[in-house]
Design a protein that fits this description.
This protein is mainly alpha-helical. The protein contains ten helices and four strands; from the N terminus they run ββααββαααααααα.
């Protein structure tokens, strides 16, 4: 059987967990592993450094802020802020529970899904350019390290992506935002894979 070129297993020495001075746990990741990781944090980086977000120009129009200063639209604000992101996350998990097509994905999650809903909402809030709720609670997301305990292959990745695409469509996310978000989710979901098949 030929090895799957898209699976990026973390070497055993990388799974070493250490504690920093503040008591937070982190995984050691060598520099060369960082080179192949998709730039999923570009939204937050660009927001902090005043750069243009990777959305079509029409979605980056400036809007008046409190004192008339221009403010850049973020995916977070374009989704409707806190309420919009919460609706998207809730629809995503509702579909996961209701649709038989997502049963394999659902089996990886705990019952009830309340904690999963909150964590995805907190994470997406910051990732989309809103408040960094996840980081405030847990520190750096370390997405790949946090997903290593779960067997994630092509089927799980594809179900997650299909479920999120369906949630975005059902929540009426504008196509000009939905398409680049789906592309970013594709990269992130593929990065979470830890087994072939």
């Amino acid at each position: 059987m030929q090895a799957d070129p898209f699976v990026r297993p973390i070497p055993a020495h990388v799974q070493e967990v250490r504690e920093d001075a503040g008591g937070a746990l982190f995984s050691l990741v060598p520099y060369d592993m960082m080179k192949i990781k998709p730039s999923i944090g570009s939204i937050c980086y660009q927001r902090q450094h005043g750069a243009t977000l990777p959305w079509p120009q029409s979605m980056n129009d400036t809007h008046p802020a409190d004192a008339g200063a221009p403010a850049q639209a973020t995916p977070y604000s374009l989704l409707g802020g806190e309420a919009g992101v919460r609706r998207l996350v809730d629809r995503f998990y509702d579909l996961m529970e209701l649709e038989p097509a997502y049963a394999q994905l659902r089996s990886l999650h705990p019952t009830p899904l309340d904690g999963s809903r909150d964590k995805l909402f907190w994470y997406l809030s910051g990732w989309l350019g809103g408040p960094s709720l996840y980081i405030e609670r847990f520190g750096h997301p370390r997405l790949r390290a946090r997903h290593l305990p779960y067997s994630i292959g092509v089927a799980e990745r594809d179900q997650w992506l299909a479920c999120m695409r369906q949630a975005m469509i059902e929540e009426g996310v504008d196509e000009r935002l939905r398409v680049p978000l789906a592309e970013a989710f594709d990269k992130t979901a593929d990065w979470m894979r830890n087994r072939a098949g």
